[in-house]
Write a sequence for this structure.
């Protein structure tokens, strides 16, 4: 048992669909159609249908997706973009890379997502966009974010790298897939994602005709016709082998998300009575697809618990240990003693346990038993 536990079991997932995956990859090799072509077009159409969105534009990775999406908005150097401070670096990184200013926003302690109550106070005459991140697999409050954006004439770019397949419920009769609600949605197909390929990959989603054309243009060297370059762009494309893998795995995405949710529910049931643990909060306006199962560990016991679990052969991860504004790369965007209290508290408390499609009951019980042992010792 001690050497069997992984944060994500990609090999186990692959073994169940090996024949389909191998057949698709071999066909691509036999056709020598490695860039673009049938696989990429099929995946594009399949994902558009699954998400019920007008346009999916595949690209090389999730960070490229964010960068290209922002480039398509024609923002000017020095413009400000609101972004949650408790998050992976890529979201703020591309903002800075394009000469824009990332404005760090504190997050909601329960949901980990951008705090609605903090947004409007940070909007200035230079603010042009909000980038809500659907962290760990659950939606940010998109209805209210869109209302704020409309009020202040701002763009909304959804970072949906961790929540593909999740639904957002406007009311009992209306729902949309995350990533299709804002002006542009972005996602990643990094291998460990809920829908992951066998390398790097990403995509952008939009229902806006004009933005779709801009995104396609930018991702293809700024050209709409070979050797005719209308704008400064970049070279970002999903290769055909990765598209083949994604074509197969997209058929299983709902099943994968259900298995993750089932594992999360079992963790909840088994850990909720431990006073020094806070299990993940569920919002009413979204289902949770559990890219990560993230606990809050109280009384400064997080690092001791992580070390204890490691000694038992149980991996765990801290997503994320340092606020973005305390990273050396971003310090010049904030005042010297800039502090966001919720973000800092979360950085000291969060711990993610293994969760994936192959997490069987024996392994999960072993993890739970050892967590209980730590707190009952």
């Amino acid at each position: 048992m001690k050497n069997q536990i992984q944060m994500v079991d990609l090999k186990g997932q692959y073994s169940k669909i090996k024949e389909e995956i191998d057949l698709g990859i071999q066909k691509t090799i036999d056709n020598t159609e490695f860039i673009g072509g049938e696989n990429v077009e099929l995946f594009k159409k399949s994902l558009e249908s699954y998400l019920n969105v007008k346009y999916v534009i595949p690209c090389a990775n999730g960070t490229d997706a964010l960068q290209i999406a922002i480039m398509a908005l024609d923002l000017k150097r020095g413009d400000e973009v609101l972004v949650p401070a408790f998050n992976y670096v890529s979201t703020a990184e591309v903002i800075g890379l394009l000469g824009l200013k990332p404005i760090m926003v504190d997050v909601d302690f329960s949901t980990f997502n951008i705090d609605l109550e903090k947004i409007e106070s940070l909007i200035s005459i230079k603010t042009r966009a909000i980038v809500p991140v659907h962290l760990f697999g659950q939606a940010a409050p998109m209805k209210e974010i869109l209302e704020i954006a409309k009020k202040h004439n701002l763009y909304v770019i959804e970072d949906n790298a961790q929540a593909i397949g999740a639904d957002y419920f406007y009311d009992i009769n209306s729902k949309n897939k995350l990533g299709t609600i804002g002006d542009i949605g972005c996602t990643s197909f990094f291998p460990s994602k809920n829908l992951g390929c066998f390398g790097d990959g990403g995509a952008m989603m939009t229902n806006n005709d004009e933005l779709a054309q801009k995104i396609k243009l930018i991702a293809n060297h700024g050209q709409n016709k070979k050797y005719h370059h209308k704008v400064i762009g970049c070279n970002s494309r999903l290769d055909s082998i990765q598209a083949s893998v994604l074509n197969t795995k997209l058929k299983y995405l709902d099943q994968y998300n259900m298995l993750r949710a089932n594992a999360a529910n079992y963790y909840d049931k088994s850990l909720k009575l431990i006073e020094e643990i806070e299990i993940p909060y569920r919002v009413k306006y979204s289902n949770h697809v559990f890219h990560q199962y993230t606990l809050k560990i109280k009384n400064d016991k997080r690092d001791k618990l992580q070390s204890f679990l490691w000694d038992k052969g149980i991996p765990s991860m801290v997503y994320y240990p340092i606020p973005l504004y305390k990273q050396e790369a971003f310090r010049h965007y904030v005042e010297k003693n800039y502090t966001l209290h919720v973000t800092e508290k979360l950085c000291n408390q969060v711990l993610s346990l293994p969760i994936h499609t192959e997490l069987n009951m024996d392994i999960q019980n072993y993890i739970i038993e050892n967590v209980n042992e730590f707190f009952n010792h």
Summary: The CA atoms of residues 97 and 351 lie 30 Å apart. The domain at 18-105+112-250 is CATH 3.40.640.10 (Aspartate Aminotransferase; domain 2). The chain has a mean pLDDT of 96. DSSP finds 13 helices and 14 strands in the chain.
